Amino acid sequence: xxxxxxxxxxxxxxxxxxxxxxxxxxxxxxxxxxxxxxxxxxxxxxxxxxxxxxxxxxxxxxxxxxxxxxxxxxxxxxxxxxxxxxxxxxxxxxxxxxxxxxxxxxxxxxxxxxxxxxxxxxxxxxxxxxxxxxxxxxxxxxxxxxxxxxxxxxxxxxxxxxxxxxxxxxxxxxxxxxxxxxxxxxxxxxxxxxxxxxxxxxxxxxxxxxxxxxxxxxxxxxxxxxxxxxxxxxxxxxxxxxxxxxxxxxxxxxxxxxxxxxxxxxxxxxxxxxxxxxxxxxxxxxxxxxxxxxxxxxxxxxxxxxxxxxxxxxxxxxxxxxxxxxxx
Length: 328
Ligand code: ACO
Known about the structure:
Helix content: 25-40%
Radius of gyration: 19 Å
Low-confidence stretches: none
CATH class of the largest domain: Alpha Beta
CATH topology of the largest domain: Peroxisomal Thiolase, Chain A, domain 1
Order of helices and strands: EEHHEHEHEHEHEEEHEHEHHHEE
Strand content: 15-25%
Bound molecules: acetyl coenzyme *A
């Protein structure tokens, strides 16, 4: 049975930076409040006319090139997003058209946990022999779903995409995965129009499609679930946290990251933090952060990495991945 290993990685961040100083001019907030409550200094915003599938295609092509492959080699595309181009067709189909890829392609919706869910799908597809090379993309244009008059949410989110090519191999790269969901928290974080929130002129005028979040409840959920699943997934692999080179948590709030690291007793230098420069990029966060580690030369073959996601649904997921590529 083939295993899934990381063969290539890439990312894309839109050029436009939206700073806390600019947000101070838009809503009643301050750089001091945003920095101390969240750790965010700036976030990226997709250009006019740039959609989630555009960001996905740029990150995807970078990952395919990094793997030394051509678009025609990709046998499946799994795209995680919570800010799709449209409800239908899938953002994955938009992305493959832009990449020149022709293979089964579909979206996975698990909010900020989406990349870890997509990782499970890719690993299973490779193990089942359905594809040799699977492109997993996390792509978000979150700012398109944000009400820029709502200070409680508009300071938090940013746009971007990260992508990873997983290829069939004789030894595991993706070693253990744990996923979870609790639908009783479905109302805590919602966004977009759909069958339960149909679009109409009145609904648009009321701002019904904008992202809404019960921040405190999500915060409490995150600091409980992240340490729990991190410990579980590491134990599943027969390891301890001392064996882990990098802990890559979803970046929603620096205080969540620090509280989780403290609970786990993992030293700060092994916990990756990228939130200051990009805010919460939902499903794109984990692959963007992994690519940042790789391009900075901070990953070497044999490094054990734990990625942990949590988000709307409520959903959560963690995976242990052995880095098998050479250093960048
Ligand atoms: N600037 C200034 N003041 C603000 C702002 C702002 N941008 N936003 C809120 N406030 C005010 C509130 O109005 C409130 O004022 P009040 O006391 O007069 O009522 C005060 O600040 C405190 O508000 P809280 O919501 O209690 O602030 P808190 O410390 O909880 O921080 C935050 C809010 C940052 C949203 C935090 O709760 C959080 O990070 N939660 C987790 C969010 C998260 O993880 N989301 C992503 C999930 S992943 C996904 O699926 C997308």
